[in-house]
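Notes on consecutive records. When two proteins share a document, each keeps its own sequence and its own token line. Never mix them. Below: protein one.
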Amino acid sequence: MIKVENITCKYKNGTNIQTLFEQESFEINQKDFIIISGPSGSGKSSLLKIVSGMLKPNEGKVYWQDKDIYSLTNQNLSKVRLEESGFIYQDFMLIDELTVLDNIKLVQHLSKKINNELIEELIKKLSLEKLLTKYPPVLSGGEKQRVAIARALANNPKVLFCDEPTGALDFVATKEIMDLLQKINQENNVTIILVTHEQENLKYATRIIKFDNGKLKCD
């Protein structure tokens, strides 16, 4: 489903060039639940951004279903990302001026592919019925993340990219969100690629990509 070939990621730190990882390759299959783990600053989020089409690597290629995504124009890459993937953030990235329902529908409006049946299904699956007319500032962290998950799924993506989705949540909400993601992975056949530093989340993975002294180890 996703093939990563010989990617290298570097960034400028003052006058120095820092290498996060170099010449790394791996494949991600449909319905994998991948967790990217490692210490803070090791390059977890950079790797997620490269695989998700948000950050072009210094070297190497990333293929989605045999498409070399970084050979596409910016417009076509944005279209592919919108239609084939969803992204979930640690800080939710909801629009405070929109109701919960309008936040969920936003992705469909952007893609101009309205599917009210899918919206209703997501609302029920994520137990959002009582929140639809509320605005994000009055929601708990767990409620905001459930709304963000519904929005990410609103275009029926093949893969979900999750950047520390439980980093701002307490233990109870963390378990709730991770259980929901596992259910989505197993019942909807959605591939999940998730960054976390929380060791208790590793039990949800079918495979783990771990940073170890600048190298990636894929279990």
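Protein two starts on the next line and is unrelated to protein one.
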Amino acid sequence: MAEKKIQAVLFDLGETLLNFGKVDAVALFRQGGGLAHDFLCRHNQPAGSLNFFLLRHLLIIRFFNILSNLTGRDFDSFELLKKAEQRKGVKLTPEQWADYAWCWYEPLSRFAEIEPDLPETLEKLKSAGIKLGILSNTFVNAVTLDRHLEQFGLLKFFPVRLYSYQFKFRKPDKRIFVQAARAINCPPENILFIGDKMKLDMKGARGANMFAVLKMAYTNGRKIPQDLMVVEKVSELPGIVEEVNQK
């Protein structure tokens, strides 16, 4: 029997597995900061005034975001915010720090939706012997993202989860796709990558010699090449995998 051409599927996160839609980032930052500030106050920690708390953290994130754009390397926003509070004398347990990080993310999490049949789709792929993983550009800590995936019952499908802040490079850099291939223990040419961004996801996956599938979303941006595989929903993947592997 011929070896399967697709042995693994790697997913982008935002607008691929989790659909957020267009959001007001500034408003979400204020809401998350307000929750985080309340959390510190409830735990008798030196939070200071809310306005100064928000301003201080906004300046930190903006500075490192600019640096990230210059270097092409993402940062761990949670570790930055944690260190900022520790310098002010905040002392929390590891579990409390995880809850504190969730406070910042929680307003955004409310917008997230998944396809109604997504768990069934992932189960089909898994039952067919396809390895599943996540590769995403993000500065959100893995602890927070894992909690969100668990809320949707998706975490169990993805033993391999790679986030760009964990590396010195990010998509579309070929190296992060190669790292993902190693992590999932599969040659790049036997991996299908699905994402929503042409410049980051499709360019990177193709550059690493992976099958590239574009998930239709408002983030697609530039003109879509005619030779690119495109899906409206993740539920179309099992059919694509079966079709490719039967050729």
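For the record: The chain has two domains: 8-20+113-245, 25-109.
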